[in-house]
Amino acid sequence: MYKTPCSRLSGLVGVSVKQKLLQNIPRCNQAARSLIQLHRRDPSNWSTYQHLTFLKRQYVAKNSSELHQRAVPKQDPVLTIVDEREDSVERQVQRIPTIDPVATEAVLQSEDVTSKTQPEVSTLNSTAEDVAVQKDAVCKTGAVSGETPHIQVETEEAREARLDRQWKQLKVHMADLPDIYARLAKIKLTALVVTTAAAGYAMAPVPFDPLMFFVSSLGTGLASCSANSINQYFEVPFDSNMNRTKNRPLVRGQISPLHAVSFALACGIPGVALLTLAVNPLTGFLGALNIFLYTCCYTPLKRLSITNTWVGAVVGAIPPVMGWTAATGFLEPGALLLGGFLYSWQFPHFNALSWNLREDYSRGGYRMMSVTHPGMCKRVALRHSLGLIGLSTLAPVLGVTTWTFPLISLPINLYISYLAFRFYRKGDRSSARKLFFCSLWHLPMLLLLALTCKKPRRDQTDAGLPPAPSLPLTLQS
Questions:
Q1: Contact assessment for residue 267 and residue 291, using Cβ atoms and an 8 Å cutoff
Q2: What's residue 368's pLDDT?
Q3: Per the confidence metrics, is the pTM higher than 0.85?
Q4: Which of 212, 244, 344, 362 could disulfide-link 387, Cβ–Cβ 3.0 to 4.6 Å?
Q5: Do 326 and 344 touch, CB atoms closer than 8 A?
Q6: pLDDT tens, 236-289?
Q7: CA dist., res. 55 & res. 297, Å (int)
Q8: What is its main location (predicted)?
């Protein structure tokens, strides 16, 4: 009663499936039409002539049920010409070989004839053909190499400029050694040291001895050369960072460090020995002390503390004292006064110089007042410029000069004090430069005025007085 025959059930299922298919037919037709239209609109999906000729351009072709591989024509190797010059710089010039059209047509015709007469080529024959093509390319390369290559010609000025920018080993000739030794010894600074020592000798209240004067000046100069050479030996890595000192002989490698030390010993030992044996032991001791202070105290202190400026001022004050002791053999107040002149003069001189070299000293790692304490640098320069006026007044008190010296030296002392005051107030490069150039002529002028106003010696004063009358002697019996 509740069962449905199987045929009737299958018929109902078939009717329902047929109705669903009829409903989906319009949708399928619409989707097919849209796909066809999209295919027609996009030309990239069309089958073109390039698609049809794709197989024709393949390197592998099938002939008579056998697989053969055509040899890919190799390009001719590019000719490389190496231009070797004195500076060991290799330049490669590429040259494209010319193509002979007649030879190319002949090669193509021979390949066509070979392909017609021999349709089946074995792998061994193709290898032989590769070798033949390579030989042909080598022959063409040899023919091209016979031609003159197009090399860019470099002018002499451009070549010298390029060589100057490159690192190269410097060759030192014997004729260049005097100039190298002069720069190693800081010949201008040594000349200033010898001049101050000569001034100290001349200011001493003793008769002038030309031979002793020459020997003491020579020994002082040799000691100064030794100290300056050792100073440059210690400061090579720091001098290379400064524009002011980067062209020194040791920095540029013109001489070896051993050569520089040998030169310093060759100057220092004879210089100290000459001052000790030929002059007097006190002057020799001062010369050796000056070398020690400059090389072992002042040089390392430049990278540690600003006290290096005061130590350097003591080093600069010793040469006039050496000149005085070379003449008298004693350390007297007059010698200390001359040393005081040099001590005070160095502060406005060096502080003004270092003010415009602050960047250089910073790169070199030196602790100068102008770098770390700029305010103190200006104050110290002004203070010691005014101190020169007091020292000039003290000279006649100690019996070194007459009272004329403080008066005639007052204008130049006031002028350098005025420039030091401007440097203290402004602190610019212009005021520092003016103070520095003033100090260059101030010291020689001050020493010359002191020598002009030198107090005469006692023996000269006594020689100028008339002889005392002699009392008559009476004989008493």
A1: no
A2: 87
A3: no
A4: 344
A5: no
A6: 888 888 888 888 888 888 888 999 999 999 999 999 999 999 999 999 999 999
A7: 90
A8: mitochondrion
The position carrying tokens 């001590």 is 343
Contacts with 328 (C-beta within 8 Å, 6 or more apart), sequence order:
204, 205, 206, 335
Q: Provide the 3-class DSSP secondary structure of residue 92.
A: strand
3-state secondary structure 132-182: HHHHHHHHHHHHHHCCCCCCCCCCHHHHHHHHHHCCCCCCCCHHHHHHHHH
**Which residue type is seen at 21?**
L
For tokens 């001189």, name the residue.
Answer: 349
Q: How far is CA 43 from CA 34, 39, 51, in A?
A: 16, 8, 13
Distance, in Å, from the CA atom of 106 to the CA atom of 426, rounded to the nearest integer, reads 90
What are the backbone dihedrals phi and psi of residue 62, each rounded to the nearest 5 degrees, phi first?
-110, 115
CA quadruple 94, 98, 103, 109: dihedral, nearest 10:
70
The Cα diameter of the chain in Å comes to 207
Question: How far, in Å, CA of 111 to CA of 116, rounded?
Answer: 9
Instruction: Report d(CA 287, CA 270) in Å as an integer.
Output: 11
The one-letter code for the residue type at 272 is V
Asked whether the CA dihedral 44, 47, 49, 52 is positive or negative, the reply is positive
| Predicted pLDDT at 90 | 45
Least trusted range by pLDDT, from 60-69, 236-245, 341-350:
60-69
Q: Say how far apart CA 264 and CA 256 lie, in whole Å.
A: 13
**Cα Rg of the chain (Å, integer):** 50
Domains with residue ranges and CATH for the chain:
4-63 (no CATH), 176-331 (1.10.357.140), 333-455 (1.20.120)
The span from the first CA to the last CA of the chain, in angstroms, equals 207
Higher pLDDT, 113 or 94: 94
CA-to-CA distance for 76 and 250, rounded, in angstroms? 55
* Nearest-angstrom CA–CA distance, 443 and 115: 103
The torsion defined by the Cα of 120, 126, 128 and 133, in degrees rounded to 10, comes to: 120
State how far the Cα of 184 lies from the Cα of 268, in Å rounded to an integer.
14
Residue-level pLDDT at 1: 43
Residue-wise pLDDT for 101-131, tens only, equals 544 454 445 555 444 444 444 444 554 555 5
Burial letters for 255-283: b for 16+ Cβ neighbours within 10 Å, e otherwise? beeebbeebbeebbeebbebbbebbbebb
User: CB of 439 within 8 A of CB of 349?
Assistant: yes
Is the CB of residue 150 less than 8 Å from the CB of residue 83?
Answer: no
> How remote is the C-alpha of 441 from its chain's centroid?
32
